[in-house]
Amino acid sequence: MREALEGSQAIARAVSLAKPDVVAAYPITPQTHIVENLSKLVADGNLHTEFVSVESEFSAASVVLGAAAAGARAYTASASQGILLMSEVMFNIAGLRIPLVMTIANRAVGGPLNIWNDQSDTMAVRDSGWIQLHCISNQEAVDTTIQAFRLAQETELPVAVNMDGFVLTHTMEVIDMPDQADVDKFLPPFEFARKLDPANPSTMGTLVDPNWFSEVRHSHHAAMGKALPKIEEIDKLFAKQFGRASGGLLTVEGDKKAKVAILAMGSVVGTMMAGYEDYKDEMPARIVKLRAFRPFPAKALRDALKGCEKLVVIDRAISPGLGGVLGTEVSAVLSTMDNAPKVYNYALGLGGRDIQASTYKDLLKAIENPKAPRFSIFDVDLKKLPPEDR
Amino acid sequence: MIEYRIHGRGGQGSVAAAYLLAAAAFEAGFTCQAFPAFGAERRGAPVMAFVRIDEKPITLRSQVRSPDYMIVQDETLLLDPNLIAGLNPKGAMLVNSRKPASDFAKFKTRVVAFPATELAVEVIGRPIPNTALLAAFLTLTEHVPQKALASALKGRFGGKVLEKNLELIAKAAGAVEKGAWKEKAHA
Question: A-contacting residues of B 46-65, CB under 8 Å?
Fold first, then answer.
């Protein structure tokens, strides 16, 4: 049913529709409303789950690890410093191949302290081995959350659903909330073949010596590769049942044949789509909306960029001393492409700096200059810095 | 698309007003988007919230820099001359004030001044001007019917609070000129 809902409230409802057995989370801005809404659903008797109030994100992640290992459908959510505090456990969850779902309400990482949106938190756990999906709207975040529970159990991998903090979590918009009966049809009850079971004793997370460690890593990497078609398949099955898809691995918006393209993840894609509508007559561009960041859809990306000469990759985080993370990865997968587009990697909107629709035009204008830098923080105001820091 | 910016101080319900306006627009069949510009979340600190209403899906996520209309819940915020920066030249501003509109002539835009705090104190017994301002704003613009605001309130409040707010919006709606800003500023 279509409703006007705050993003966080909608996510709590979507999680509830998946009927998790265990929810453990510690509140942190801008994820707090998700946890509050879940807690309210439980208190009102509308969600029957073991809601574990923990004292930190490390414990939240540990509780869901243990719960899922014991065969429970488990969910957590966090952001920013909370993700950093979870990071050790996140690597364990993925390394032990525990299927569970987490929402990351993306926020900058301190210091200096900043509570606003960028994607530094999820980039900091880039190599944790989780499936990482990005959403451009609250509708996609709701639908992707429901898909994530199915994806997790079919791949035996944990799934992180990224949604931009504040920009999505605190925005009220029209969302078509799925019905419980439809979600029940789409999402089978949780099954985990390797679950810890006293009737069938086994161990998990034992010491793995050099004789086996590479094989463990290989199988994890291979599982991520096999998750690529699964992500597409589950999105298609969802679309068949609910009448809308969330964008598979990636989709191309805007002018699909344009020689220039802008690639991005998360809510900034929506703003670039609005920019396209404003400036398409003078400056048409393809907009590549990347949904799957891990596993990284190298082939789909090369296919989406055929015939493209110049590509702007927007990063919402930077790796100091290198540049943008997404831009660097896109460049890497394009290195094996014939006639690959020239990549211009621009970070913007760091720590909540507002991104306007006119940024679409500014980016495309910037790369017309033959001396355009291949990486910069696009919206930095150097005049604010002393000359020695520029 | 019509864009709105609501200014207030922490505690006046600016974010709630944005959500209510968006929810009312949804009730009236529009697509909508409402979100706050979060800063230091303290009572009394300046707060901004944004609303977009359209007939088609809204993908834009930026803050509203060039609003078609502004609602100012605390007139002292206008001591900052940049507050109305970006307001559509054909737009208008509703200010919560006991002063006559002519006192705001220097802003060179259409202003309606409406004593919402006083009305709120009289009806609900608390100095929270947001719902009275919204009702007056909807009478002026007729962008969304008053009954949609009433349904949005019903979705958010209950009991005595709802009852008093329904009484407040009925009073506020009748206190300003109907349809004075009816045209869409962006048209």
Answer: 58-63, 65
